[in-house]
Design goal:
Elements: H1 3-14, E1 21-22, H2 23-30, H3 36-46, E2 58-59, H4 76-83, E3 88-89, E4 92-93, H5 96-99, H6 103-110
Parallel strand pairs: 1-2
Antiparallel strand pairs: 3-4
Helix pairs in contact: 2-3
This protein binds a DNA duplex through helix 2, helix 3 and strand 2.
Amino acid sequence: MSDLYERIYTIVRQIPQGRVTSYGAIARCLGTKSGARMVGWAMNASHVTNVYVPAHRVVNRNGMLSGKHHFGGSTVMEDLLKSEGIEVVDDQIMDFGKHFWDPFVELKIKI
DNA sequence: AGCCTGACCTAGG
DNA sequence: TCCTAGGCCAGGC
């Protein structure tokens, strides 16, 4: 596994329960060169990985569950988020800004 | 090797 | 304010 993937997984694993972040935020945290698409690609690969990655806490910048179809089931992602106390309506996270978890702030302290 | 695609984002018209 | 185009990198064919 490449370093990039590992770094992405590390960041995603830092997301606390009931919080969410965006692909772009993670991408920026790693440096814009990586690109937000790579984060999504890494999430896709995370299904195969033996390490647990809470990919359901990562959404696009609008707070929309663009990756729900990749969870195998149809409402698995939505269910997981709801079980963590996040309100999801019509594939959209309510109060996204409220639940938003900024990698910059946390990683500044953690790393 | 080249082309197409993808769980994205930003900028310009 | 909505729509289009471009940029980014990795993988499949």
